[in-house]
Amino acid sequence: MAIADQAIGSPADVPASQSAPRVNPNSRIGVAVIGLHGRGLSHVDAYSFDDRVQIVALCDIDHSTFAAAQKMLQGRGRPPATQYTDIRKLVEDKSVDAVSIATPNHWHALAAFWAMQAGKDAYVEKPVSHELTEGRRLEQARVKFNRICQAGTQARSNPAHMQGIEYIRKGGIGRVLLARGLCYKLRNSIGHFPDGPVPAGVDYDLWLGPAPLRPFNPNRFHYNWHWNWDYGNGDIGNQGIHQMDICRWAIGQQLPKSAISLGGRFGYEDDGQTPNTQLALFEYPDAPPVLFEVRGLKSPPLMGVGVGNIVYGTEGFVAFANEDSRSVVAFDAEGKAVKTFRGSASHFANFISAVQNRKQSDLHCPILEGHLSSAMCHLSNISYRTGKPHPFAARAAMLGYPIDFAEAFGRFEQHLADSALKLQESSYQFGPRLAFDPATEKFPSNPQANALLRREYRQPFVLPEEIEAL
Fold first, then answer.
1. CA-to-CA separations, 417 to 267, 299, 372, 392, in angstroms, rounded
2. Is 468 within a domain?
3. Do residues 232 and 276 share a domain?
């Protein structure tokens, strides 16, 4: 059966007959936060302010991360939470009703799958998958195990963003021409570090999980794992997934017919593998294209937006600036601001409401939407990774591509030149224009690209390929 034959529209509520509510509306929901370094503390912070929630468990492979989380709970007058190192032990805890996952990307799908299989609801940080096929399997798991599952793209819960999208949908900027995502976010070199001993208190085997076995290196551990293909997805899958989701939301589309990406890691040599500068173009048969730009070197904003979105129409444009997540501004065709939308809200609170109500339809970003937006990031990275070096001096590279892509490439070159790169002596990775079939979520004629849709999982950390057959 083609993937398109499965339900792709509005997600169904959890059938009451198949999933008796384990959560008493008059009692607190037991939440476990998985992954406590960095983003995970934001989860602890948000849930500890929600009177409907009791954080009953914390999970991390690094014992040094527990103290800050427990101190936060204590400061909010909350009791200490049970500490776990192994997710498999945590999901056996009967006091846990829902998990909130803030692990490195390569753990997102497996952690969510194990939780839902054990009868827990799940909030999954962005991107919801490390490889494209994982997101679809999470949606299948949600249906099979009748759980509530939210994707962590928080803009979906912001009233300002909702109103801006509604303004676009109602024709406020006329016919939409292009959705642009911007991730102009300075990323310094991570340098070079030799492999070394595993730090005390770290279960490194569990940290690796489904990823290949390799020696410990601090540049592949806390946060810097983002820039290594075994665990992360570069900035297009880190910060950029938020803006990719808004692009797709704005044009009201799912997956494209094609994707192409180019870029490189410019300005320094370090242990990072992913591009710090990247362009990606996604084309649809009957909808506006999505154009995405990543810049990790210092760069001025584009039309006032550094990290965010610009959606262009025949009668104006709307700017979604991440630097001010509480406001979205609409402009007319002359560039005059005509309307400002304001407001923010808690994405975590939205998840808890759906857990209480047992209504998947109450979620602002159900896991299927998270899968589709994460898949866009994966498509761009697959094109990039299957590409070849191309000299900047070859001026015909953009022939045959849309004018918006060529214009963005011109600014891409100028940005690098302004960053003191000698372009005539440099090259960039130029990926192929990959035809993609949204119905099967595969590349019809590219075995090399298809090989990057799913990883080889390291035993026993395996996400089943056939969820429906379990």
1. 10, 11, 35, 11
2. no
3. yes
Q: What are the pLDDT digits (tens) for 400-432?
A: 888 999 999 999 999 999 999 999 889 999 999
Residue 237 and residue 138 in one domain: no
Question: What gap in Å lies between CA 467 and CA 470, rounded to an integer?
Answer: 6
Structure tokens that stand for 207 in this block: 């940290």
Closest to 303 measured CA to CA, from 165, 159, 188, 178: 178
Same domain? For 262 and 144 the reply is: no
Q: How many helices (H) and strands (E) does the chain have?
A: 12, 17
108 conformational bin, left if phi > 0, alpha if psi -120 to 50, beta if neither: alpha
Q: What residue numbers bound the domain in which 106 lies?
A: 11-156+347-365
Q: Where are the alpha helices (DSSP H) in 158-289?
A: 159-169, 204-208, 240-251
- Whether residue 117 sits in one domain with residue 25: yes
Please state, in angstroms and rounded to a whole number, the distance separating the CA atoms of residues 166 and 157: 13
Which residue type, as a one-letter code, is found at position 93? D
Nearest partner of 25 among 347, 346, 355, judged by Cα: 355
How deeply is 32 buried, as exposed, middle or buried, from its count of CB atoms within 10 A (0-12, 13-18, 19+)?
A: buried
Q: How many structural domains are present in the chain?
A: 2
- Residues 192, 309: contact at Cβ < 8 Å? no
- Per-residue pLDDT reduced to its tens digit, 102-122: 999 999 999 999 999 999 999
CA-to-CA separations, 211 to 75, 100, 109, 384, in angstroms, rounded: 36, 21, 13, 21
| Whether residue 9 has pLDDT greater than 50 | no
- Which residues partner with 364 through β-bridges? none
Tell me the mean pLDDT in the region 331-341: 96
Answer whether 108's CB lies under 8 Å from 455's CB: no
What amino acid occupies position 374? S
- Whether residue 45 is predicted with pLDDT greater than 50 in this model: the reply is yes
Point out which residues pair with 283 in neighbouring strands: 258
